[in-house]
Write a structure and sequence with these properties.
Length: about 120
């Protein structure tokens, strides 16, 4: 598992190839991101467990905007829906090709300022 912390600045973390298991610390929040199988042409899941001060964060809105970084393939946005106490998830559609994909994750906790981070995901066949 990869863990990084940042306070008050943009964060970009390189992950992959293969399954992702990373924790990002931003402004007192811990966002535990998992992606599997994280391969081109294969659907999978993207999940995020969100906590602050060790307690799960309920009622957040989580969105991921995905962009191919190596060529113009357009972008798509995924909403991660609540799947448990402080857990948010979505089915990850199969990306059409291997390469570097940017995942901009925006988290809007209820009653608190939003924050974001970016994953640069190296996807292989």
């Amino acid at each position: 598992m990869v863990a990084l912390a940042v306070v008050g600045a943009a964060l970009s973390l390189t992950v992959g190839p293969g399954p992702v298991d990373a924790v990002v610390h931003v402004d007192g929040y811990a966002a535990h991101v998992r992606m599997a199988p994280n391969r081109s042409l294969r659907a999978g899941t993207v999940s995020l467990s969100l906590s602050k001060n060790g307690q799960p964060v309920e009622g957040a809105r989580v969105r991921a905007t995905v962009t191919m970084l190596d060529m113009n393939m357009g972008t798509f946005t995924l909403a991660l829906h609540r799947t448990g106490f402080g857990r948010y998830s979505t089915a990850d559609p199969a990306v059409g090709m291997p390469g570097r994909w940017g995942w901009r994750i925006v988290v809007r906790p209820r009653g608190a300022p939003s924050f974001e981070f970016t994953l640069v995901d190296r996807i292989r066949d």
